[in-house]
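Fold it.
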Amino acid sequence: MKRISQDIIQNLQYVKVSDTNLDLSHFPDFMIVGPQRTGTTWLYWSLRQHPQISFSRPKELYYFNFLDMPEFPMYRSSELSWYLQFFKEHPVRYFWKNFTTLRYYGEFYRPKIRGEATATYAAMKTELIKEVLTLNPEIKIILMIRNPIDRAWSHAKKDLLKEPGKKFDEVSDQEFEQFFNDPYQLACGRYTAIIEKWSSCLPQGNLFVGFYDDIQQAPEQLLKRIFDFLGVRNKAKYYRFAQTIVSATESREIPEKYEKMLAAIFQDEITQLKQDFGFTW
């Protein structure tokens, strides 16, 4: 048991701690922070199969990013006890995970690290990132990068067509333009700013930047690097589900007018990403 200290409690600005007997050993060792539509569901699903990795249930808790917005509909609580409850494994769930790891890998489920995968954390304010680091100064963060134009288009298709029966032609140009220019959407596509914010708070070496293109082109190699980053066993048998596609949206190509609109919005960002990572978009 790792009881939360008074020093930690005093340094928290948004997180509330009513129960001073909380066990911080249930706090995650790593987070998949997104942003959305960059392959985080695939990554969560792939890592969840590993016999040494445990995840919160549900996958996305939306805790830290809404701490400063108690009026927001998705806000649930600022109490740390509320958050930590989702990392405690129910015996039935533990039994089932043990069954699956024995079936697929011939190994018992022995979780070494805990993780959370909330894709809205990537664009959080710095003061909210600091709340995470106050609770676990050694936490590891996984960030995924996708072409900002493709990411924005995928997110627009998902959100603007989520009403049952709504067709693409029923969404107006104005709706798409407003969606693309929403402050949160802009923040999700500005990876250089995201990397800078998280890097400024994390210990050196605790930020992993992965590429969405690798999920399609080299998923096993991507998982290998992430397993090494997280410090868990790395065996070829853990890649058996790497080719599985999850959370796909309608396969409609982006119309030229929207592609040009997004290219103008993210022109500087794309140029910087090409310089930093050698992308050939």
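Strands lie at 30-34, 53-55, 113-117, 140-145, 207-211.
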